[in-house]
Write a structure and sequence with these properties.
The protein is about 30% helix and about 25% strand. With about 425 residues, it is an alpha+beta fold. The strands form 5 sheets. Strands 9, 12, 15, 16, 17, 18 and 19 form a 7-stranded mixed beta sheet that branches. It has a 4-stranded antiparallel beta sheet with strand order 1-8-6-3. Strands 5-4-2-7 form a 4-stranded antiparallel beta sheet. The longest helix is centred in the middle third of the chain and has 18 residues. It is globular and about 80 Å long.
Length: about 425
C-alpha cells in the first residue's frame, strides 16, 4: 500500500511553493522523516520529509512546478530497505551494507574503511542549498569530504569541489611532434572563439525579491541621507575586550552588536524610523525587531532579531552568527523571516564603500553599513588618519521627515564614536 506525500503547511499567508529538487528518486530506499524533496517558497527553502519508511514510488510533480499546500506530490511504497532499516538498528558487531536494492552484496563481509564510512554517512541528508549545487555541477557527494557538523557537507565544501581541478583521464602517451592543445581563447585573427550562453530559471526566492524591491520603489517615497562614523573607539574596545568576551560568552565580539544597540538608542529618540504605515494610520512600536540582511545561496534573506533593544551584546552576536550559519545551510524557518520593524544591511563585508539600500516594506527605514577604511580627517586643527565608515539611511519620506532622518543618523554617530553612551543610555 502506498503512502501519499503531501505539501506541508508553509507558514502564514503562504499557499503554494515551487518544487526545487527531488532528493530521492523512484526505487530508492527511504527512511521515515528523511528529506525526499526541496520546496522553494517566497522566503526560504523547505524540505519535505517522508511520512513513513519504504521505497520511493511515483513522483506526481516535476521540478519547477508550483504546488499548493496539501497537494500530493509523491507516493512511498511499503517495504524495502528503508522500512527494514528504520524497524531495527543492526548490532554494532554486524557490518552495515551501504548498497541499495539490486546492488552487488558479495563484499558485505569485508568492512569498509573508516574514511569511507565517514564520507558516506552525512550525505544521506543534504540541505536544499547543498543539493542544488550538487545537481547543478553534476557532482558525486560521496566523493566530497564534509567539514560541517558530524561530517555533513556544507555549501563551501561543494563549491570547492566544483571549482577544483578535474581528474585527468588516462590517455595514450603523446606522440613525438604532437601539437600542444589549443587555448580556450583564440585571437580574432586566428579564428572565431566559441561564444556560449546559459539560461537559468529564476528561483522563486529571487522572483519574490525582484517583485518586492520594485514594489517598494513604486510605493514608498524613498530618500537616502548619509553620515560618516569614526570607528576608532569601537575598534579599540573590541581589541581590548575581544579575548575576554569570547572566553566568557563563546562568541566573537563583532561590529553588528554595536550598531544594533546604537540603532535601538536612536530609535528611542526618533520613533518614526521604527514605525510603519498601514492604510491611513501610522503604527509606532515600543520594541525594536531588527531584520538583519544575510547572504544566502539564492539571494539576500532577512531573519529578524526579536526585541533587539532588550538584548545584550553577547545575545545579539550569538543570534546573528546562528542566522548566518543557517542561511548558508538553507535551514532558516519561515517564522524567523517574518516581521521586523527596522533593517540593517552590512555591505561592508563585501567591500562596499557607499550605497543606497532599498526599504523592506512595510518597514519605513533601512540602515546601510559599509567598509571601514582610513581617511584623512581634521581633529583639533590637525589632519590625521582615522578608520572611517559611511552610513546610509534610506527612508520613506511619507512618514519620516528629513530632519528626523538626519537626527537618527547623528544619534547613531554619537553613540558609535563614544560607546559609553550605549551603557548609560545617552
Amino acid at each position: 500500500m502506498a503512502t501519499e506525500v503531501k505539501v506541508p503547511t508553509l507558514g502564514e499567508s503562504i499557499t503554494e511553493a515551487t518544487l526545487g529538487a527531488w532528493l530521492k528518486q523512484p526505487g530508492e530506499a527511504v527512511a521515515q522523516d528523511e528529506p525526499i524533496a526541496s520546496l522553494e517558497t517566497d522566503k526560504v527553502a523547505i524540505e519535505v520529509n517522508a511520512p513513513t519508511a519504504g521505497t520511493m514510488g511515483k513522483q506526481l510533480a516535476q521540478v519547477g512546478d508550483n504546488v499548493a499546500v496539501g497537494a500530493v506530490i509523491a507516493e512511498i511504497e511499503a517495504g524495502g530497505a528503508g522500512a527494514s532499516a528504520s524497524a531495527a538498528e543492526p548490532p554494532a558487531s554486524t557490518p552495515v551494507n551501504p548498497a541499495g536494492p539490486g546492488e552487488n552484496m558479495e563484499a558485505k563481509e569485508a568492512p569498509a574503511p573508516a574514511d569511507d564510512e565517514d564520507e558516506e554517512g552525512p550525505h544521506l541528508t543534504l540541505s536544499p542549498a547543498v543539493r542544488r549545487i550538487v545537481l547543478e555541477h553534476h557532482l558525486d557527494p560521496s566523493k566530497i569530504k564534509g567539514t560541517g557538523k558530524d561530517g555533513r557537507l556544507t555549501k563551501d565544501d561543494v563549491l570547492a569541489a566544483a571549482e577544483g581541478p578535474k581528474a585527468e583521464t588516462p590517455s595514450a602517451p603523446a606522440k613525438a611532434g604532437a601539437q600542444a592543445p589549443k587555448p580556450d581563447w583564440v585571437p580574432a585573427s586566428a579564428g572565431t572563439r566559441e561564444r556560449k550562453e546559459e539560461r537559468v530559471r529564476m528561483t522563486r526566492l529571487r522572483q519574490t525579491i525582484a517583485k518586492r524591491l520594485k514594489e517598494a520603489q513604486n510605493t514608498a517615497a524613498m530618500l537616502t541621507t548619509f553620515n560618516d562614523v569614526d570607528m576608532s573607539e569601537i575598534m579599540a574596545a573590541r581589541a581590548r575586550y575581544k579575548d575576554l568576551f569570547e572566553k566568557k560568552h563563546g562568541i566573537r565580539l563583532g561590529f553588528m552588536a554595536f550598531f544594533v544597540k546604537a540603532a535601538a538608542l536612536a530609535a528611542h529618540d526618533v520613533p518614526s524610523v521604527n514605525a510603519s504605515i498601514e492604510g491611513e494610520e501610522i503604527v509606532y512600536h515600543d520594541y525594536l525587531d531588527v531584520s538583519v540582511a544575510v547572504s544566502a545561496p539564492n539571494g539576500l534573506v532577512v531573519p529578524v532579531i526579536r526585541d533587539a533593544h532588550a538584548m545584550s551584546f553577547a545575545e545579539i552576536e550569538k543570534t546573528i552568527a546562528d542566522f548566518g550559519k543557517r542561511a548558508k545551510e538553507g535551514s532558516l524557518t519561515m517564522e524567523e523571516m517574518q516581521g521586523g520593524t527596522f533593517t540593517i544591511s552590512n555591505g561592508g563585508v563585501f567591500g562596499s564603500l557607499l550605497s543606497t539600500p532599498i526599504i523592506n516594506p512595510p518597514q519605513s527605514a533601512v540602515l546601510g553599513m559599509h567598509r571601514i577604511e582610513e581617511r584623512p580627517v581634521v581633529r583639533d586643527g590637525q589632519i590625521v588618519a582615522r578608520p572611517m565608515m559611511y552610513l546610509a539611511l534610506s527612508y520613506d519620506h511619507r512618514l519620516i521627515d528629513g530632519r528626523e532622518a538626519v537626527t537618527f543618523l547623528v544619534r547613531m554617530k554619537e553613540a558609535l564614536e563614544d560607546p559609553t553612551r550605549l551603557l548609560i543610555d545617552l
